[in-house]
Amino acid sequence: MTEAPTGDRLAAPPLGVYVHLPWCVRKCPYCDFNSHARHPTLVPEAAYVEALTADLRQDLALLDAPRPVHSVFFGGGTPSLFAPEAIAELIAMLRRHLPFAPDAEITLEANPGTFEQARFAGYRAAGVNRLSVGIQSFNDAHLKALGRIHSAGEAIAAVQAARALGFAHLNLDLMYGLPGQTPDEALADLAQAIALAPDHISHYQLTLEPNTPFAQRPPVLPAEATIGRMERRCRTHLARAGFRRYEVSAFARPGGACRHNLNYWTFGDYIGIGAGAHGKLTDAARAQVLRTRKHSHPQRYLASAAGAERLAEQHCVPPRALTLEFLMNALRLTDGFRLMLYARRTGLDPTALLVALAPALATGLLRRRGDTLVPTRRGLALTNEILLAFMD
Question: Residue ranges per domain, the chain?
């Protein structure tokens, strides 16, 4: 598929903003995110807010026209190391430079230690309306094995505090397949999470990522068959509790889906500011999709955010890669994607896409429902087999 995008089909999608705050109290041994251990009192909040402001101003020049922001996501690292005043300043800064949709979703990732709990009210007052709490487990032994610095009791108290403060949406992150974990223990973690009444649960398997301490010194993980039992039992339990799986590892009650992540998965646009942040912007007039990436190390980012060297990478996505990138995101969704969405996001003819996906349809990895292509349960587990047809 080498067809070039055409301007009459390519349309500017919804716009989000991702803000990366790269510091943690301690880096977990399984984590491969761009995060750096630093004591909370040594986080250079003021300098980083100033750098983010300069970074945003320059990214705005890449937009072909003013567009409303539908979601903001503060990720990390541990964004809740930043004081509520700093988060309020950042939200106000974004609002000064960009129009916000009236119902814009503003998410902040937080850890459940007592240091962060005391700040939840301040984040709520600053305008954060969705909190994503990194629990991972409610079992103290498993938390210790994961290198987490909070206890199960602190996790429960943090979620209860967030719920009492009236956050409109609350997500809990949980892992399964932990060192020494049994299916019953995985189910107990999930039952505790559901009892805390979130409207969203991110439930994903622990994986040993390259260049992490866990990859270098692998812990003993449950057997694949055991992990399979955990997964099946947990999905059944989530469904019975009213959580619908809408993405590979995301489960939500009605109205609780993460709009910011849905924008990623439907190949929407986003400005990415902060150390190591990625961005994607569509220029419909020029029929092109631009990718950006900022310098990863916080010190390099702080030194370059206001200057000509602020970008670690910037390139226009070639047509063949557009198809691959679209599918890598859209095929994570249990409802699949409409062919018309593919045309509007990439500017490419969906007829050619259907020809390339014919083997996946024939082998039952995908099924077609009118204008929509939906991955089967097997297809969700074997996405890479579908994507092979689009890889050089």
Answer: 15-262, 319-392
Q: Which amino acid is at 247?
A: E
Angstrom distances, CA of residue 316 to CA of 135, 274, 343: 38, 21, 18
Q: Which CATH number fits domain 319-392: 2.60.40.10, 3.50.50.60, 1.10.10.920, 3.20.20.10?
A: 1.10.10.920
Contact 246, 266 (CB under 8 A): no
The CATH fold assigned to 15-262 is TIM Barrel (3.20.20)
Question: Does pTM surpass 0.90?
Answer: yes
**Residues 6 or more apart whose Cβ sits within 8 Å of residue 228:** none
Where are the extended beta strands (E) located within 10-129? 15-21, 23-24, 36-37, 69-76, 100-110
CA atoms within 13 A on the CB side of 156: 12
How far apart CA 218 and CA 388 sit, in angstroms, is 29
**pLDDT per residue over 100-146, tens digit each?**
999 999 999 999 986 677 799 999 999 999 999 999 999 999 999 99
